[in-house]
Every structure is written in structure tokens, then in C-alpha cells.
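[job 0417] fold request received: Man(5)GlcNAc(2)-PP-dolichol translocation protein RFT1
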Amino acid sequence: MSYFSRPLLVLGASLFMQSAVKHILTQGDSLLIATFSSLQDQGIYALASNYGSLIARMLFQPIEESSRNLFAKMLSSTTKGKKPDASKVQSAANVLADIIRLYVLISIVAAAIGPGVAPVLLRIFAGSRWMSVGAGAVLSTYCYYIPLLALNGVTEAFISSVATSAELHQQSAWMSVFSLGFAGAGYVFLQVLGWGAQGLVWANFANMALRILWSTYFIAGYLRRNGGSLELSGMLPRAGSVAAGILAWSALAQQKEKFTGEISDVIRCGVVGGVLLLLL
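[job 0417] inference complete; emitting C-alpha cells
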């Protein structure tokens, strides 16, 4: 008699493989930039990545972990092979839609205000020498990447809560394919186009977008098979919210050249951000 449960061993192996693939993807940007870029670009990207990911770690990661636990409790089945209750599936879909809608609104603020205020904050906290080598521009670009980190986190949290071992293997396989696409995009942006650290951010952007598309496809299929649905209209922002975000971005873009890296610049950005929040 075996000391270990075979289903648990299979599931553990699947989760291990998935974690290994995710680790490779996480370290993939480091390998790419070490291979294709200069030491200066490596330092700039490391600075932008560390500062930019602070928001994801502090704000989005707790939501991701909590939602993973919630989805697992709502959609677990005590009987092997039995589908979860359709009402619970729809409730989980509604929770997911609410989280995504919240993330979309946060993304509008991040994309509108972040590129303007990020270089100012970088000058204040890291010094002006980083601005002269282009770190501010890279950090501004990273602000467009943060919303994708958030969306990918919550969609993959849903998948990890409901996927079978075979589906986890399938996800790992697709993530490996996306990593090859990431490497190709990184080569083009870094070597061919010479975009430096900004090119690596855009390569990550493309890779994360592909992962979100696959996760969306999986979630839609899961809900369809189990009597649930996810309405796109319930997750999209109002046209007025998008327009307000564009106006805020334009206002800061026009003032960006006048910024001197003082606290007054942060206050200006804060005022624009406050008005934007009221209009969302």
C-alpha cells in the first residue's frame, strides 16, 4: 500500500511544473537583458522593475491570494467528477467580474497619472542622475504594464482554483509557448530596434497580454460548461471614464516638460488624479 495518495502526487507534480515554468518566465527578462543589452540598460530596467512592481506586490497580490482562496471554496466539489453547483459558479463569475472591473478603473488611473508622476517620484527618491540615463522614461512605460500584471494575477488565480491536473499541464505548455514569443519579441525590441530597457518592458507587455487572452479563453470555456457566464459589458468602464482618463493623460503630458522634480509637481499630479477619481 502506498504511503501517498496518487491523485495528490499527480496534482503536486502538476503544480510543481507550473511553478517551475512561471519561475523561468519570471527570470526570463533578466536572462534576455543580460544577453542582449548593456550594463546601463540592465541597471535601468532593474530600477524600473523594482519600483514599478511595488504597486503590484502591495495592492494586487493580497487581492489575488484572497480571490484564489475564495474561488477554491466556492467552486470545490466534494464528489469526484461532479460539477460544482451552477449558482455557485455564477456567483464566482460575478465576483471575478467585479474584481476585473475594479482593476480596469485602477488601470485607467495608473495609465493616465503614472507616466507623468513616475519620473518626478524617481527624481525625488533616487536622484537626478537616473533621469539623465532614461530611467524615468522606462518607469513611465512600466506604468502601462502594471494593469496587465493585475489582470493576469486574478485570472490565473481563478484558473488555479478550478483547473484539473491535465488543464494545469496544458496551461504550462501554453506558457512555454508564450515564453518563446517573449524571447522573440525581446530580441526584436532589444537587438533589432535598439529600444533598450523600454523594449524589454514592451516584450513583457506582449507576453502578459497573450497569457491574459489564454486565461480568458479558459475561463469562458469553464463557465460555459458549468452553467455560468461572464458578461463583457459588466467589466468595461463607462465611455466617460475612458474620456476622463485620456484628458488626464493629455493634461499631464503637456505639463511634463515643465516638471522640475519638486514636491509641487507631485501635488499637481495628485490634483489631476483626484479629479480623475471623481469622474470615474
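[job 0417] notes: Residues 5 and 199 are 46 Å apart (CA to CA). The chain has a mean pLDDT of 81.
[job 0417] exit 0
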